[in-house]
């Protein structure tokens, strides 16, 4: 027993030494990581305080130059293929993978062509843009690569490439219909491996009350086609007239259903094959590239844009539809110029595992599932939003990251509308979510009768279109 008494303090000392060593090593490694990040960090510091300001107007950008007058120079040769829209195309010659998807005119505070892209989050490769105008002029433009903020610190991120028009004498509207290519700055004479068509973003007149919906990319062979009919028809009753959707992968029945709605002009379904590994290298399917593509794609056509998922519905409690609610909300501000450009809706879970409502007027999910969390989540915690696309620069999942100058967001009181989140699974966290304080909320019953008619009608049409 005696040796033990002596050995114990010795072992304790040894342990303390090892702990100290680990402690020192930890800080050494941490220090190296921080230093590397600092050295690689190229983008300017966008602190939280500048979040809602229009902060793309950065000083010190050098001008771009006009390359050749007629586009016959060797380094301005047009790629073999025609310009594409909504296809992930590679940028060749970069150290890190770099893909571009779509290009939009930006004429608000900065004169640029805005390209939706995906590449390295920190320390991305430098790129330039080459622009072929409809009048045959070819320009080489300086470009800035700007990670979209909601990137979860993964290696790759949804990104904007801003192709700068300053000092070129070219106005943003002159680029509508032009072709543009993003090239690695270190090999500007390489022939382009991507070519995008520049799309217009100028809001058309008379679209104030038009409501469109953005949905993040479908994946894992999404297959809830039966519920999807109810979701589409409820949103149509709520005033939505168009849906932008992205196809990473779909089950055959859902593909057929979306085709059915596409033929009616209701759905724009865009391919979404991004060769960056979802969740490991980039946040779920590069969804922030999709949200922001949707923002600019809808800008000329949608007075309002609603960003929700296919298990969510924003349900107004007084008005019959969302444009009426949004107009009323805006009208409550004075002067009208103070009215917010975006409205956030608080999330309330309606678990599908909770019992059906015994007073359900129809056999619909939204009629049967009326039990929800008694206290909805706080704003920005799972909230979703509607916004004026023309007043936003950058969208996130739960709120608008950046508005145009002077625009702002506001929360919607729960007595005016709620985000109904029809969820199959309880969320993680260990607690038995079915025991959370709940209440019965029959707001959705206001639409049940009309909704049932529409769902029945649509299912009849679908049986012809999609027999399987
Ligand atoms: C642009 O070039 C094409 C082919 O060389 C020519 O047919 C067309 O007239 C030119 N357009 C203008 C505006 O110069
Ligand atoms: C969805 O994308 C897959 C894979 O690219 C494709 O095979 C399928 O046809 C697409 N579905 C629809 C409905 O466009
Ligand atoms: C979001 O809301 C849930 C439920 O109220 C809460 O448990 C969670 O901590 C909140 N998350 C954040 C980031 O505030």
UniProtKB/TrEMBL annotation:
Alphabetical keyword list: Glycosyltransferase, Membrane, Transferase, Transmembrane, Transmembrane helix
Enzyme class: transferase
Any GO MF annotation of the entry: glycosyltransferase activity
Location (main, coarse): membrane
Positions of transmembrane segments: 20-41
GO cellular component: cytoplasm; membrane
EC numbers: 2.4.1.-
Top-rank taxon, per record: Eukaryota
Annotated membrane topology: Single-pass membrane protein
Subcellular location: Membrane
Family assignment from sequence similarity: Belongs to the glycosyltransferase 92 family.
Record's protein name: Glycosyltransferase family 92 protein
Organism, scientific name: Diatraea saccharalis
């Amino acid at each position: 027993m005696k040796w033990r008494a002596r050995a114990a303090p010795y072992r304790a000392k040894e342990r303390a030494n090892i702990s100290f060593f680990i402690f020192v090593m930890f800080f050494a490694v941490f220090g190296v990581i921080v230093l590397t990040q600092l050295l690689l960090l190229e983008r300017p510091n966008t602190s939280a305080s500048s979040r809602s300001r229009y902060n793309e107007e950065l000083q010190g950008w050098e001008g771009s130059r006009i390359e050749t007058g007629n586009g016959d120079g060797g380094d301005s040769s047009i790629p073999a293929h025609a310009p594409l829209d909504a296809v992930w195309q590679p940028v060749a010659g970069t150290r890190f993978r770099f893909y571009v998807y779509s290009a939009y005119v930006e004429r608000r505070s900065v004169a640029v062509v805005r390209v939706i892209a995906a590449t390295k989050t920190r320390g991305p490769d430098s790129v330039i843009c080459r622009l072929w105008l409809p009048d045959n002029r070819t320009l080489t433009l300086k470009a800035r690569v700007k990670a979209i903020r909601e990137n979860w610190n993964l290696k790759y991120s949804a990104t904007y490439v801003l192709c700068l028009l300053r000092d070129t004498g070219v106005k943003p509207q002159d680029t509508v219909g032009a072709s543009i290519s993003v090239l690695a700055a270190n090999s500007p004479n390489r022939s382009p491996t991507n070519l995008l068509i520049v799309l217009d973003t100028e809001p058309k007149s008379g679209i104030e009350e038009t409501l469109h919906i953005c949905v993040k990319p479908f994946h894992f062979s999404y297959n809830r086609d039966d519920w999807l009919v109810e979701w589409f028809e409820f949103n149509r009753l709520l005033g939505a007239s168009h849906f932008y959707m992205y196809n990473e992968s779909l089950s055959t029945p859902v593909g057929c259903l979306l085709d059915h709605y596409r033929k009616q002009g209701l759905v724009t379904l865009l391919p979404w094959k991004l060769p960056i590994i979802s969740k490991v290298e980039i946040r779920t399917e590069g969804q922030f590239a999709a949200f922001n593509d949707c923002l600019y794609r809808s800008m000329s056509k949608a007075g309002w844009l609603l960003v929700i998922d296919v298990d969510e519905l924003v349900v107004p409690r007084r008005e019959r539809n969302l444009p009426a609610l949004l107009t009323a909300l805006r009208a409550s501000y004075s002067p009208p110029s103070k009215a917010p450009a975006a409205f956030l809706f608080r999330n309330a879970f309606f678990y599908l595992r909770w019992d059906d409502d015994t007073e359900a007027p129809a056999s619909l999910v939204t009629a049967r599932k009326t039990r929800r969390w008694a206290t909805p989540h706080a704003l920005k915690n799972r909230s979703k939003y509607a916004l004026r696309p023309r007043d936003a620069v950058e969208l996130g999942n739960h709120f608008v990251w950046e508005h145009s100058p002077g625009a702002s967001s506001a929360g919607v009181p729960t007595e005016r509308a709620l985000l109904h989140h029809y969820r199959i699974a309880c969320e993680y966290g260990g607690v038995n979510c079915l025991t959370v304080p709940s209440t019965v909320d029959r707001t959705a019953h206001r639409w049940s009768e009309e909704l049932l008619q529409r769902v029945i009608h649509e299912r009849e049409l679908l049986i012809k279109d999609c027999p399987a």
